[in-house]
Amino acid sequence: SESSRSTTGLFTRQGAPVQNVQNYVKAGGKTYNRQGRYIQNGQAYANTVSHNSIQTAAQRVQRTNPAAKGFTYCVEDTQGRRYVGATEHPTQRIAAHLNGNGAKATQQMSALKRVEIVPQRTSQAAYRYETKLYHSEKAKHGGEKVRGAGNTKPWTDSKSQK
Hints:
Distance between the termini: 28 Å
C-alpha cells in the first residue's frame, strides 16, 4: 500500500514543524517554509502541500504496481472524516476528489489531508476490499465519520463545506 505524508510543509521561525496551522496562526504564530521564507497564507500553503503529497502517492502506487488492475483507497480530511473508494485509475480518481469533481461525499469534505491506496490484482478484488475497508473504518471511527462503499448520505455536521 502507499500512503501520503501527513505534513503541512510549514515550520516555526525556529524550524519546528507546525502541525495545526489554523490554531498556530490564530495564536499569533507566523509560518515559514522549509527554506525559512515567510508564508503569508499558511492554510492555503498547507492545503497545496497536502494535495501534492496525496497526488504523488497516487502516481507512485500506480507506477510501482504495474500488474495491479484495481486499487482501493481511503482519503481523510482535516476533520478526521474518511471516504473509502475503489478505482482502476487511482491518479485520475484521486485528482477528481482533490479538484472537487469526485464523489458527492468528498465534495462536502473539508480539505483532504491524507490518502492510503492499496493495489489489488483485479478490479473485482478492489471493490470487494472497498466494502471490507469501509466496515473496518466505520468500526474504528463511527458511522458519521465514514462514507463510501454505497453509503453516500450527506454529512450531518455544520462544518461540512470546504
